[in-house]
Amino acid sequence: MPVVSAGVYSPSLARSPADAPRSASRLSPINQRRLANFRKNRRGYWSLWIFLALFVAALFAEVIVNDRPIIASYKGELLFPIIVDYPETRFGGFLAVTAYRDPFIADEIEANGWMLWPPVRFSYRTVDEALPVPAPAPPSWMMSPDERCQRHPLGIDDPGCNYGNFHWLGTDDQGRDVVARLIYGFRISVLFGLILTTVSSVIGVAAGAVQGYFGGWIDLMFQRFIEIWTSIPELYLLLIISSVLVPSFWLLLGILLLFSWVALVGVVRAEFLRGRNFEYIMAARALGVSNWTIILRHLLPNAMVATLTFMPFILGSSITTLTALDFLGFGLPPGSASLGELLAQGKNNLQAPWLGLTGFAVISLMLSLLIFVGEAVRDAFDPRKTFG
Amino acid sequence: MTHSIRARHSDEAVTEPLLSVRDLHVDFRQGEGVVHAVRGVSFDINSGETLALVGESGSGKSVTALSVLKLLPYPAASHPKGEILFKGKELLHASDAELRAVRGNDISMIFQEPMTSLNPLHTVERQVSEVLVTHRGMRPNQARSRVVELLEQVGIDKPATRLASFPHQLSGGQRQRVVIAMALANEPDLLIADEPTTALDVTVQAQILELLKRLQSRLGMAMLFITHNLGIVRKMADTTCIMTQGEIVERGPTADIFATPQHSYTRHLLAAEPKGAPPAARPGAETIIEARDLKVWFPIKRGLLRRTVGHIKAVDGVDVELREGETLAVVGESGSGKSTLGLALLRLISSRGRVVFLGHDIQGLSWKALRPLRRHMQIVFQDPYGSLSPRLPVGDIIAEGIRVHQPRLAAAELDRRVVQALKDVGLDPAARFRYPHEFSGGQRQRIAIARAIVLEPKLLVLDEPTSALDMSVQAQVVDLLRDLQRARGLSYLFVSHDLKVVRALANAVIVLRNGKIVEQGSADEIFANPRADYTKALLAAAFEIEAVPGIVAQ
């Protein structure tokens, strides 16, 4: 029974969108507009790509900076030291795990095959035994070739004195390569930040959704609880806990999570309080749709706008928190690569400015990129940018 | 430049019009493209005259009016061509300082929504005196006596006591009166009224229009009246311009336009009144829904412990009975509780009293227990922009109800049902892949109706389904609703303040006021000889303003 109101002059129906060509893309029009707005912010767009490139590179840090070769051939056999721990007995040594940087082992393998090293032949905990000057050593390129190679057995002609053993940014006060520590430190910071942001967003959004949707007593009790909870001085509690328990990556994550999940609750709750009175929510209720379906299908997408806008900034602040704890010495366990620890070394070794300067440069670059991305995301979700 | 234009005009025109719009174009930059919102509009207004710009939404009438004071969002908006002369002075290229001297002083404006055109944080006195202080340089004390005088002129009771009131303490009509007082503060030569009564109840609308007419004749000002309501045009305007798609298609003295419309669009507009009569009630039809002594009371909580000190009685002891295939209209002003009644019957808000739906007492049922019955009772809301989720394609919106009630339905069958529902409401089935924002208001309302009828309900609550729509679209939706009712034997609970639509659809009418029934009976009876004074006032306000040709002589 098609009801057609034929013969009626109707400008609004005459311009029916059904005539317009359908776009092939699967993104909804609103998201297409957002993507276009995001791209329009050139700085943020490029920052995202640079950040992603750095992050992906850091994920494969083992291939770029490592104290063991990627592939080696020894007596006709192909070995993958980067993945497999070969005992040193295999190459005539006595350690349980081969130290490939040892000149004896290196010479043995080179004599019976070859090794493909990563561009930088230090890991974040490798202590360089061939430092020409007491640690912290300045960047290699600041020294003359003679000076640089003086601790190698053959001096300037030694095959070990090559670019792979350069310290491009010097070493820290324990003789560990700064480049290696930066790359691993960047990776652990970003991973820590991402996990913390994701988990706290999930918890925060869920908590905010429940409070905003159900309202009433649930909302009232939850809000009072959050007020009391956030009034606990987070940093002092952390200092106390980390002096009792030995801090590890996951413990630190857990402690920070205890407090960081509240960041999004307010925003999401407000979105839900606003959204639950929309007529299409009422319409869904009239259809008999269950509460959880309404929350997930109709309300959450609205709240995600606010959440996504905040996320880059939360990521930035998570990273800053970790760096601050490391700087104070209450962060990741000793020996781990960490940007905060590098800063602390810079503070303790003012005679070695490359430590503080590189730490500062990397942290500010990382945070700036995240802020720029955050700005672009904010632009993308800004409804007023529609007709820009 | 201003001088040369003035010189030219004083040569050619002896009686210079107060405002002269010549070949006005307005473009909006929208992403990459350009929308030509107004294309070559020209009209003149003489002192003391009222000109009405009439058209449906999107016709460019408001944009034209806003261009006069250059209130459009520049630079997204631009005027590629045209000129606007006010007392011979070019406004379109005037500097900001020159424009400010004109705005609110020589030309002032009234907007549609009185709540948002008043600052919620300022008192009435401060809002009104601001204009006086800005343009007349009055000191606050001088201004106060003038404000009282103005408020009295616009018909506010005991104006001196209202000075310290904030906008939220006033009713909609009073707010619009304050807005008018602001507009008239400097005795402008031209008043631009952009749909000044659209957001108001019919009874208030009649009063406000009367007030405007009286003030106009006393102050001798010209009026540019923008509206979509032909009844108002007939009552108010000397000259009428009919606009559609950015152009004026017909102009002339109002009486002539109504008597002998020339352009097809004008004829279409004039014909677009909701017409027809509801299908006759079948005797002995079974009762679909019945409510006895229904009450919705919202508690008023005060004090630290939030003790309930009283109740707002939104619906207070209402009896409702609706039979299969019939339409029961609930009419009343805003705040009368008519929408609340509709929601309470569907148990979308909590209420007290007996509600029997299809023989089940649903008042005590839990949300879960009620779910199977939900497919038989559906609702269509007033605002087609708010009632469709902007993030779901139309197909998903329509299918949502089926997914709840028949979760195991095959995808192909689901799609077939969605397509059928779209066809039933007169939409292209391809619409199911699109998003709501791609559709016009009338099309969205059809989608909302499709969402409701796809479940094949017995009862449909229509909560002002036509009041957000343009006239001609309104008539189409009314026709659609009636056809659906006839074909499916649907029962409608029709909540509306628009008595013309009610007359075209309803078998029986309930008149609500402050949550109580003032009068009820069959539609014919109530429209022909209303008994309660309130009903009479309501009918007078609705039909005298909305003068359908031939019904009310003026």
Give the key terms.
heterodimer, A: 388 residues, B: 554 residues, alpha/beta, six-stranded mixed β-sheet, 25% strand, disordered N terminus
If you had to describe this structure to a student in words, what would you say it looks like?
The complex is a heterodimer of chains A (388) and B (554). In chain A, helix 7 runs parallel beside helix 10 (249-260), helix 11 (265-275) packs antiparallel against helix 13 and helix 12 (279-286) crosses helix 13 (291-328). Chain A has a three-stranded antiparallel β-sheet with strand order 2-1-3. Chain A is mostly helical and 388 residues long. Chain A starts with 10 loop residues before the first helix and ends in an 8-residue tail after the last helix. Chain A has helices spanning 11-14, 29-40, 42-59, 61-64, 103-112, 145-148, 178-214, 216-230, 234-244, 249-260, 265-275, 279-286, 291-328, 339-348, 353-380, and strands at 71-74, 77-79, 113-116. Chain B is globular and about 70 Å long. In chain B, helix 8 (202-219) crosses helix 20 (533-545). The model of chain B is unreliable at 1-13 and 546-554 (pLDDT under 50). The two termini of chain B are 47 Å apart. By secondary structure, chain B is an alpha/beta fold. The interface between A and B is large, with 40 and 68 residues.
